[in-house]
Structure formats: C-alpha cells, structure tokens
C-alpha cells in the first residue's frame, strides 16, 4: 500500500474510532489520521500475535482491524491524559 492509501485508511479508522468513543479530545483532522494509521499498525500487530486477524489493506477485515487498533490507542491516550 502506498502512503496515500495509508492516510485514507487511517482517516477512515480514526473517524470510526472517534465515532465509537465520542468525547472531547484535543486534536483535529491530523490527530485523527495519525490515530487511525497508528491503530492500523497496532491492530495488525496485536491481531497477528493473537492469531485472530491480520492487517491486509482495504478490505473489511483490514478496516475493522485498523479501527480496533485506533480504539485501543484512543483509550490509552485518554487514560494517560487523565493521569
């Protein structure tokens, strides 16, 4: 996947994560993309380690894995911001 594909997938995953966990978080469009791209990496790594999923790009499974990783990053971010 090219860098533009990662950005688009990151945007989709980040928006879905924010939609699943609404709240008042600092950051805008760029943070949402970074959260989604990071979530794709985290979700793919965790899914592969557990043997339940792998990240394979623009498929429904890839979007779900990336979104799950973005949700995980968002929860960790919120926990760290409260501390």
TrEMBL record:
Which residues fall in a coiled-coil region?
none
Q: Does the keyword Chloroplast apply?
A: no
> Pfam families, alphabetically?
Transgly_assoc
The record describes its membrane topology as: Multi-pass membrane protein
- Nucleotide-binding as a keyword? no
Which InterPro entries does UniProt cross-reference here? Transgly_assoc
Question: For this UniProt entry, which segments traverse the membrane?
Answer: 27-46, 58-80
Recorded GO cellular component terms are: plasma membrane
Which top-level group of life is the source organism from?
Answer: Bacteria
Family indicated by similarity: Belongs to the UPF0410 family.
Protein name listed in UniProt: GlsB/YeaQ/YmgE family stress response membrane protein
Q: Which organism is it from?
A: Solimonas fluminis
């Amino acid at each position: 996947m090219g860098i533009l594909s990662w950005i688009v997938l990151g945007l989709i995953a980040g928006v879905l994560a924010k939609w699943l966990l609404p709240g008042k978080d600092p950051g805008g469009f760029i943070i949402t993309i970074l959260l989604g791209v990071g979530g794709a990496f985290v979700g793919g790594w965790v899914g592969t380690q557990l043997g339940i999923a792998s990240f394979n790009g623009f498929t429904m499974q890839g979007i779900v894995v990336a979104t799950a990783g973005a949700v995980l990053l968002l929860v960790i971010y919120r926990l760290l911001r409260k501390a």
